[in-house]
Design a protein that fits this description.
2 strands; 66% helix; single chain
Length: 197
């Protein structure tokens, strides 16, 4: 899995203020409305995919691509609402943003044993340890986002070290989501760092 967001050399103060005070209206409301319906279809697709993996060891490719695009859309939306990118996050499964890269490779086969392990014990060996770590990290991320908001407002710059940390939080949560959604057998590392190429 590859996920990254390009750090901008400068950020728009006007867009920052617009997102802060009206983002719920012109970003969150239309995206949430469409995503709500797509999430229902995603749940159905994921249910069917679970049985497909159990019996064939493969995630149906069209279903996988649909769910991967859904995750990409959510990452674009999160990046915008977190003030990590300027510009409007395009609506649509095939849409993209030049600053946000999400690439989820299709697995040729998946383990039936891990599928059952995740289903019945995933909350124990994935959910609990990762949620504990991510909870602390999310608190730090919220604090850095608050500080970064003021930095962008007064300087037009998002401090790069804070930016990398906050992108890392999104990357970590995406890895956990991919694993628990049966889209990969690679256990998510306890890190927000990018995977070495």
């Amino acid at each position: 899995m590859h996920f990254d967001i390009t750090h901008q050399s400068s950020y728009s103060r006007a867009e920052l203020l617009l997102r802060t005070f009206f983002g719920w209206l012109y970003i969150m409301a239309p995206h949430a409305f469409v995503l709500m319906f797509l999430a229902i279809w995603s749940s159905i697709v994921s249910f069917i995919a679970w049985w497909a993996i159990l019996f064939t060891g493969r995630y149906p490719q069209s279903f996988f691509e649909f769910n991967a695009k859904m995750l990409g859309w959510n990452m674009r939306l999160s990046a915008s609402l977190s003030n990590l990118i300027d510009g409007y996050p395009a609506i649509g499964l095939s849409a993209s943003h030049p600053a946000v890269q999400v690439n989820v490779p299709y697995p040729q086969s998946l383990s039936r044993g891990l599928l059952l392990l995740r289903t019945f014990f995933g909350f124990l060996y994935v959910g609990i340890p990762h949620l504990i770590c991510l909870y602390g990290r999310l608190i730090a991320t919220a604090f850095l986002q608050f500080l970064a908001w003021w930095a962008v407002l007064f300087t037009g710059k998002y401090p790069e070290s804070w930016f990398k940390f906050n992108v890392g939080t999104l990357r970590w949560s995406l890895r956990v989501n991919l694993y628990m959604a049966n889209m990969t057998d690679v256990y998510p590392p306890f890190s927000g760092l990018p995977t070495p190429s």
